[in-house]
Amino acid sequence: MKTVNKVLDLMEAFLSSEGELGVSELAKLTGFNNSTANRIAMTLAKRGYLKQSGKRGKYALGMKFFSYISPLKRRIKFRHLALPFMVKLCQEADDSVDLVSSEGKYCVSIEVVPTTNMLRAVPAEGTSYELYNSSGGKAILAGYTDSQMEEYRKTVIFKPHTSNTITNMTELTKHLKIVRQEGVAFDCEEMTLNVHSVAAAIKGADGHFLGAIAVVGPKSRLTRTRMEELAPVIKEYALNISREMGYRGMS
């Protein structure tokens, strides 16, 4: 962890500089000795995160950072286009609405519209969830290809957050078959006791699943019956957001 922090400290030194930085300047800004600053800078340069002008020249941010611009823009666009729909869904469902983005083995809450109800469940933005125990995560998993699912199978580690949590691949596979048929995923206290949620996946222009939109609430109000009533509504909102993202499929 110390090494990771040192790498990040050195990279962040460039945020306060408009030009190139030499090893001695990096050492001064980070508090490292020259040898440590030089070693980290050389490694980052080899990976393309920094560029060096000449063999012993100064360093600047490298072209590798441009590869992050496209997914960052996509996420910003995703949040921007989804928010008006989330506000309307929150009013219609009378419970909080969570927008999650697919991030490898996890999904991450990137936007939340809380209900005004005193008794409510409000996910914290930036929180990551395992795919297998959240409605948004299961909605995303249902869109995995065979190869993606096989890779997921190799890496997933099931943890029983509650007595309702799915804890093995056989159970998850059966569950996802139902999600694909119904087009929505339910979470009945699988991640958090007394909290229910129902979600539908959002697709991009290429048909790939970008994330999901979920209604989240206390189980006393967001009952199984209520979630089933909201299922077609959530599917419609998810499809409308998908259309805004360029998707042209029928469902």
How would you describe this structure in keywords?
251 residues; Beta-Lactamase; alpha+beta; Arc Repressor Mutant, subunit A; 8 strands
Can you describe this structure?
This protein folds into 2 domains: 60 residues, Orthogonal Bundle (Arc Repressor Mutant, subunit A); 176 residues, GAF domain (Beta-Lactamase, 2-Layer Sandwich). The model has no long low-confidence stretch (mean pLDDT 91). The chain is elongated, with a radius of gyration of 22 Å. The N and C termini lie far apart (45 Å). The protein is built from 8 helices and 8 strands, in the order αααββαβββαααβββα. The chain is of the alpha+beta class and 251 residues long.
Short description:
The protein is of the alpha+beta class and 251 residues long. 43% of the residues lie in helices and 19% in strands.
Instruction: Give the CATH level 1 class of the largest domain.
Output: Alpha Beta
The radius of gyration over CA amounts to: 22 Å
Biggest sheet, strands in spatial order?
Answer: 5-4-3-8-7-6
CATH architecture of the largest domain: 2-Layer Sandwich
Query: What's the CATH H-level homologous superfamily of the largest domain?
Result: GAF domain
**What is the overall number of helices?**
8
> What is the CATH topology assignment of the largest domain?
Beta-Lactamase
Shape: elongated
Helix content: 40-55%
Mean of the pLDDT scores? 91
Uncertain runs are none
Number of domains: 2
Please report the distance between the alpha carbons of the first and last residues.
45 Å
Strand content: 15-25%
The largest sheet, given as strand count, sense and whether it forms a barrel, is: 6 strands, antiparallel
Give the strand tally: 8
- The run of helices and strands is HHHEEHEEEHHHEEEH
Structural class per helix/strand content? alpha+beta
